[in-house]
Amino acid sequence: MIVGGKDVGERPLILAPMEEVTNPPFRKFCKRYGADWLYSEFVSADALVRSIDKTVRKLTIEDTERPVTIQIYGRFIDSMVEAAKMVEEVKPDFIDINFGCPVKRVAGKGAGAGMLRDVPLMVEMARQIVQAVNIPVTAKTRLGWDCENIIIDDVAERLQDIGISALAIHGRTRSQMYKGEADWEPIARVKQNPRIKIPIIGNGDIDSPEKAKEAFERYGVDGVMIGRATIGKPWIFEQIKHYLETGEKLPEQSVQEQVNIIKEQILLSMAWLDEVRGLFHMRRHMACMFKGLPHFRDLRIQMLQAPDIQTLWEVFDKIVERYGAMDLEDLEG
Ligand SMILES: Cc1cc2nc3c(=O)[nH]c(=O)nc-3n(C[C@H](O)[C@H](O)[C@H](O)COP(=O)(O)O)c2cc1C
Questions:
Q1: Which of 82, 169, 290, 311 lies 20 to 30 Å from 49, alpha-carbon distance?
Q2: pLDDT in tens, 15-66
Q3: Minimum-distance ligand 1 atom for the alpha carbon of 206
Q4: What single-letter DSSP state applies at residue 249?
Q5: Which of 224, 2, 173 is nearest to 93 (CA)?
Q6: d(Cα 298, Cα 315) in Å, to the nearest integer?
Q7: Using DSSP, how many helices (H) and how many strands (E) does the chain show?
Q8: Ligand 1 pocket, CB under 6 A
Q9: Is 244 exposed, middle or buried (0-12, 13-18, 19+ CB in 10 A)?
Q10: Angstrom distance (rounded) from CA 147 to CA 102
Q11: What's the gap in Å between 304 CA and the centre of ligand 1?
């Protein structure tokens, strides 16, 4: 798949942008397990132009991550254009504009999915950003503001026409937030529109090799973007890739392997943040692990409440001791 002249691989599996999740340490693991293209978490244009340290740090990328996108959001064209120019200086492969974030503090102020209520402003913002930088600009959005206003067909054409290089579509409306099931029919419709020439990336609820296959084969998208299913399971990319290539499923990572991976992630997270915040940050990932292990409740609580790394490592030892010999193939989740 070619995006703005750059090759991102055939049928790419893409790490979705996720605030407080897709930071450099996490991206490293997704890359290791086969993600073809990585997105940063969203970066506030307003905070960036004010050079807020925490925000500027979100622009950190390494060559080993390529192709990598930095995503920006904001409601004002001027600050978005200025932010895009600042982002360009750190040389990501792509800049992505967030037209999909549904949370109130963003969409309620007109940024993110809020732009779906003012398409002329959305298109003008995208146009000016495309004009202002020399790297390809992509966009990520939802189907519309609510189910009475599914406007993605028109939005896709208009964004393509002003020079957006690829469009990622999350198959929900803003009103749905993350509830219900993602609707892939409108994504397929955009892809089938003969006017649409840019790559269309499908997003929403992909959490298994079978669903990824369906996204490519039934809905015809050019790329599949995966968000929540990567949390606590960055190796999902490898599982999907293997299935797409061979039709066979890889065995699940053993408990010991999962413990090794999360330990390494925790150490990197601590190095990136600091000991306390790094450990706290990883709780979200740990909470998504070891699903379906029988009688796991006591150890799950100990794992999620461990105050320091020594205690946590002891909990991991107990997990391996109790479940290390178990065959995970029959477990749910
Ligand atoms: C914790 C979290 C943070 C997110 N942050 C962003 C973000 O910064 N930018 C963005 O475009 N989407 C963001 N999203 C939306 C995801 O990129 C994705 O569109 C959504 O989770 C649906 O895909 P999934 O079902 O594979 O998770 C976020 C989602 C989650 C769960």
A1: 169
A2: 999 999 999 999 999 999 999 999 999 999 999 999 999 999 999 999 999 9
A3: 26
A4: P
A5: 2
A6: 10
A7: 15, 10
A8: 16-19, 21, 41-42, 71, 98, 100-101, 140, 170, 203-206, 226-229
A9: middle
A10: 14
A11: 23
- Ligand 1 centroid to Cα of residue 290, in Å, is 22
The answer to whether the beta carbons of residues 312 and 283 sit under 8 Å apart is no
Per-residue confidence band for 199, with pLDDT thresholds at 50, 70 and 90: very high
**Closest Cα to atom 26 of ligand 1:** 227
pLDDT of 333 over the 60 cut:
no
DSSP H or E segment with residue 97:
strand 94-99
147 in active site: no
Three-state DSSP at 82 gives helix
Closest ligand 1 atom, residue 172 Cα: 22
Residues whose CB falls within 8 Å of the CB of residue 225, separated by 6 or more in sequence, listed in order: 14, 15, 16, 39, 140, 168, 201, 202, 203, 206
Q: Using one digit for the tens of pLDDT, what is the confidence trace for 165-194? A: 999 999 999 999 999 999 999 999 999 999
In this structure, which residue's CA is closest to atom 19 in ligand 1? 170
Compute, in angstroms, the gap from residue 81 CA to the centroid of ligand 1.
Answer: 23
Question: Backbone phi, then psi, for 232, in 5-degree steps?
Answer: 80, 0
Report the DSSP beta bridge partners of residue 14: 37, 225
Instruction: Give the distance (Å) from ligand 1 centre to CA of residue 16.
Output: 6
Closest to 227 measured CA to CA, from 260, 202, 244? 202
Residue identifier of the C-alpha nearest atom 21 of ligand 1? 227
201-223 confidence digits (pLDDT tens): 999 999 999 999 999 999 999 99
Q: What is the DSSP secondary-structure string of 16-57?
A: PP-TTTSSHHHHHHHHHTT-SEEEEEEEEHHHHHTT-HHHHH
* pLDDT tens-place string over residues 234-290: 999 999 999 999 999 999 999 999 999 999 999 999 999 999 999 999 999 999 999
